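Q: For a teaching session next week I want to show students how multiple molecules come together into a single three-dimensional assembly. I've collected the sequence lines for a complex. Could you give me the predicted structure tokens for the whole thing so I can convert them for display?
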Amino acid sequence: MAGIDFNSTVVKEQEDALVVAHNTRMGVVLLLVYIVFYAGFMALTAFSPAAMADAPFGGLNLAVLYGFGLIGLALVLAVVYMRVCRKSKPGGAA
Amino acid sequence: MIHEASSLSIFVFLVFAGLVVGISFYLGARARSASGYFAAGGGIHWAVNGVAFAGDYLSAASFLGICGMIAFYGYDGFLYSIGYLAGWIVALFVIAEPLKRLGRFTFTDALDNRFNSRGIKLAGAVSTLVVSCFYLIPQMVGAGALVQPLLGFPHYVGVIMVGCIVTLIVMTAGMVSTTWVQFIKGTLLVVLCAVITVLILLRGVHTNPQEASAKAGAVLARDVPAADVVSAPGAEVLAEDGGWRGLPYVRVRHAASGATAVWRRNADGTLSEAQTLTVLPDGRRLANGLPQGKGEGQADLRPVGYASKLPGGVERTGPLGPLEYLRTMQDSEVILWASERITGGDAAVTTVYYQRPTPGSDFMTPGSSPTFRKVRSDRPADKLDFLSLMLALFCGTASLPHILIRYYTVKDQLSARKSTVVGIAAIGFFYMLTLYMGLGAMTSGTLDITDSNMSAPLLARSFNELLFAMISAVAFTTVLGTVSGLIMAASGAVAHDLMTNYLRIPMDEFQKVRAAKIAALFVGVVAMGLGIAFSRMNVNFLVGWAFNIAASANLPALVMLLFWKRTTKEGITAAILVGMISSLAWILSSAQAFKDVYGLDPASALVPFSQPAIVTIPLGFVVLVVVSLMTRPPAPKPAAS
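A: Of course. Below is the structure for the complete assembly, covering every listed component.
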């Protein structure tokens, strides 16, 4: 069973500088996207808390919608990151 | 409230605890090398590691603290859920792969990868120990809070029990058993919380919770004409004395029972029933005016939690869908509770718990709790506490040593990525459930007004005793999972970073593992002491402090190491130490510490707000940049190495 095969030898993986740079760039871009939404939530809560009581659609107030939205967005961006990341191949080619 | 243990609860608890320790012993027999002990040999499957991330991260604070805060105050508790989850984005996008690439056993390994600096080793190890100890406090406090209703033991017994079991787990097999404890706990926690959420939706919302649950307390009287109370047969109104003078309370002694009931005067002159817990000068305790207990002539605080008005004026909603449930709560009015401490003329100290009818438009928006009340203030400076906490939660996750070491248990960077995504899915789903569970507890009729941390288990009890036993046992393993991860991180810092790398004590693999186990024992004992000392503090708030320290001490060093080539070893060392010391000093000088830790007047606090991250994280970055610019950069590595 792979999960408890903790005595197996772990081989140091091959790294490709281009792949590392690409993945790092993608991570930073997606992080910035999330920061924009997170900062928006913080700003609305701190400086316009009354707006959080408004119900823009579905009868749910903005506080609940935005909160669930941030949790959902985290998962969406995580999946996007998985798709755009590259994997180093043996020999160093991307 | 006095909670009575049931044999079913004890049986289920023993089965869970036995299972966890049994797995620990079984796997412990297989890990003898340092790699096996500290990093499970790097052989954990990414899916298992992802769920173990959830098991590691969803601590007592997440489960007990957030649910309790939502149950007592509403949406404000959910702000923690949002912040805790958002922190994983930083971990995935910035930290996961480099950490796996650069490190071996501890996060100090990664920081020190380019430099081989004794200063970084020392600073990283001390930071790991401080953050782990601060994070251990709320876990141990939560354990004690759980054991009270589950097994009927005092708080300190729960703390000692958890401390002993976890120390045993960590000492037997290190990261392997810790991983599997966390995997089992993470799975059970998410599944059980999903089941409870379904039950909440099927039950709907009631104005009389006793219709829905035999465990629920009765609805307390509200808006009663004062004459009906003071002129009742056998009622004697007590004179206002001591601290009672001038307060909106009427105390009525009943001749037949000898009990003294306390009523709170409303704005329109009517009275609403309150509950009281009194500590007499000789130490005896009275609940609602009678000796506290379950026997003849005794009384206890009554369980509470119900809606007072529902949309359309109905008394019960029936089953609701997930969105419909939230809409219903928004449009309802719920009886929340506030408290006030009063010292009477006879030196008896009474805590009065009084009803606070609150509309959903209030408790379903930010700022309804004492913690975040200031976001509704007009003064911009009042917003800093909230902004600082949200910043700490966002930056803190990726700086927690016990989370970071989990990246070494998988084989490569791709696995680190995948396991983080699995972790985010499990943790995000759980945090969505916290809003339903907190609101469900708010109207369950089983809340203990003296202890918000018990809200989730008591919500389960409102459905049935088996669910209560299971959720309490899982919550207990929740504490076990997180505490074992923290003790692992701390013992690794001592044995690997301090003893092997900083002090350069020559040790073979066996000696290194033995040193880590002794360190685990020592940290476990310290954790028990801290858990008893801080027993009265809200676990969620304590975790917020741990995030502040972690983010201030570790994040500037981690981020700048990865993204600024001019970073020097002196810069990293200085940033860790300044971030850690400044955030710790700020916390210990805050109004919250003055009030809850020292018992002093919070107005005499030395700093203007309680959460330091908004000051100390930027300070860490500034210190790193300035010190790096003032010191020699690392020499470039030879091209053909």
